[in-house]
Amino acid sequence: MWQQVDPNQQWERMLGFTLAVDHRMIVIAYDALYPIDLRRPRSFVSDDRFPEGEGVYDYESQILTYEGQTHYVLGLYGGSPIIWSGRGEVLEVDTERETLRIAGLDGKIALKFHYSDVSGDWLSATFSQDDEYVLLGVPYALYAFRRLPG
Hints:
It is a single chain. The chain is mainly beta. Helices cover 0% and strands 44% of the residues. The protein has strands spanning 2-5, 14-18, 24-29, 33-37, 57-58, 63-66, 69-75, 90-94, 99-103, 109-114, 124-127, 133-138, 141-147. The strands form three sheets. Strands 4-3-2-7-6-5 form a six-stranded antiparallel beta sheet, with no helix packed on it. It has a four-stranded antiparallel beta sheet with strand order 1-13-12-11, with no helix packed on it. It has a three-stranded antiparallel beta sheet with strand order 8-9-10, with no helix packed on it.
């Protein structure tokens, strides 16, 4: 089972987001970087020193180097999402119906979520490296889900 995590933020044109590692991720937007702790998603602050990731984000390699750490980015300039979890689940996105689904090995749907994409420019969905989160990003919104114990 999955529970939605609400960052409670509408982005001013998000360019991308990093894979979640140890409950943390970073959103790259036109106006700033937004480091987020998914355990406390409403308590983040922006870092407006790097609008559009200027000086810290390499669009060609999809690498963000921020505060001494390197992060892989998904978003407007591509990236390689993790669509299979270590538990054998598959992440599916139907852009026509604006639906995100997670299906188990047995074919049962563990999550079905309808999102809104007012832009249509890009979309990226991924499991986190530890399979604890699923992230879906579109230019103006980030949707995050945490795996519930059990």
